[in-house]
Amino acid sequence: MSVESFTRVADSIARLLSAIVWPAVIVAAILAFAPDVRKRLSQGGVTVKAAGVEVTIEKATQVAAALGAAGAKGETKTSAREVARAVTAATTAARRGQIDQASVLWVDDHPENNEYERQAMTALGIRFTTAKSTPEALRLLAAQAFDVVITDLGRSTQDEDDPKAGLRLLKEMRSRGLNTPLIVYAGARAVEERDQLIESGALVSTNRPTELFDAVVKAIVA
């Protein structure tokens, strides 16, 4: 099925189903046609419009598509149920105006690896600033306030070469009195070292796109 055909089907589904049921159906379709959707996302995203709820449908579909694509490329499998639950909660918060224009600092020496995750949150109006190293992140944090910080664990750049750079950033922030919620988003090590990271002050440590998405939304609306 082409992306255009998928969009027409999703549009029909969105018109017929309730606001609670349709996200799961759309997500299932998105995950089934993940390669085509990922291609379409790189060209500007997927938009579904339905009379009376255009903004909600558009946002939710973009979020679901991006999360589905992120889950498809990751180390862990992401179910349609997981994505639908995350989308429903996030779009509810977005309709209440609790997310739009929130500011997130994302620290990762390979920001291109998180393209779909950022697309999912950008669809809700979240704004991102990126940094590739701890020194760069600390300079940005000193210059402006952020609602959330996301960091990977290991980084190798001209500024730093540290397998625990994310933990170092966390400790530096707390030592400077910066209590911005920090989420660790990395590979398997984010799970393996979760206890240490949480004990050091991280809000969440995960390698799952939906858990990252949930954590960011909850931190913003808290």
Report what the structure shows.
Helix content is 55%, strand content 11%. Helix 1 runs antiparallel to helix 2, helix 3 packs across helix 4 and helix 7 packs parallel to helix 8. Helix 6 links the parallel strand 1 and strand 2. The relative contact order is 0.12. The strands form two sheets. It has a five-stranded parallel β-sheet, sandwiched between helices. It has two domains: 93 residues, no CATH class; 119 residues, Rossmann fold (3-Layer(aba) Sandwich), CATH 3.40.50. The chain has 222 residues and is α/β, with parallel strands linked by helices.
Which features does this protein show?
222 residues; Rossmann fold; 2 domains; 5-stranded parallel sheet; 55% helix; globular
How big a fraction of the residues is strand? 5-15%
Number of domains: 2
Euclidean distance between termini CA atoms: 41 Å
- Mind telling me which CATH architecture of the largest domain this is? 3-Layer(aba) Sandwich
Helix-residue proportion: 55-70%
Largest sheet: 5 strands, parallel
Indicate the mean pLDDT: 79
CATH class designation of the largest domain: Alpha Beta
Task: Write the CATH fold name of the largest domain.
Answer: Rossmann fold
Strand order, main sheet: write it out: 2-1-3-6-7
Structural class: alpha/beta
**Count of alpha/pi helices:** 11
Shape descriptor reads globular
| H-E string | HHHHHEHEHEEEHEHHEH
Q: Rg from C-alpha positions? A: 18 Å
Tell me the CATH superfamily of the largest domain.
Response regulator
Low-confidence stretches: 12-23, 44-55
Count of extended strands: 7
